[in-house]
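[Automated response] Your request has been received and processed.

Submitted sequence:
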Amino acid sequence: MARALQAPIRQIADNAGVEGSIVVGKVLENRSASFGYDAQKEEAVEIALRTQQILAEECGVTETAEGYQVYDPERYTEDSTRGAIDFVDNLASLKFQHAIEDIRAKREPFEQAMFDRQAEIEKEALALYEDDPQAARQYLTDYSNGLMAQATKMYIGLRNELIVNYTNNQE
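Generated structure:
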């Protein structure tokens, strides 16, 4: 089973001409589900935020919100979206069965709203692109950065809610 779960990373490494077992070892050293392999850089990297940045760039977004650029695993800062998400994950681990419902109650409507608006956003971006590609890129950048700011705010709020509900002798 473990080997099957390593297959995608091994295949990426093999495609890049690198020894798969070495790459798997590097990724596993990080002991985090958010690590993967960047074949271009030939190194283990945080894939969750990096994947979001790559997808945004592929869609024409010209800049990434500050909160998605700032992350120091050794120090928490309010400016880091990843820091806020990690904080919520760590709090949720304390009382997962209870906390996950609070997290889902915030996260799922946020995600659904994005899916619900996707066709509208794509239609608007395409219309802008036909007249002015740069205006379409700016529209997508502004939209994406707005969502990033909302996500950061949501996770900081979740952090505060979880602290109140599941720590400080809350049983």
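Summary generated for your ticket: The first helix runs from residue 2 to 15. The radius of gyration is 19 Å.
If you did not submit this request, please reply to this message.
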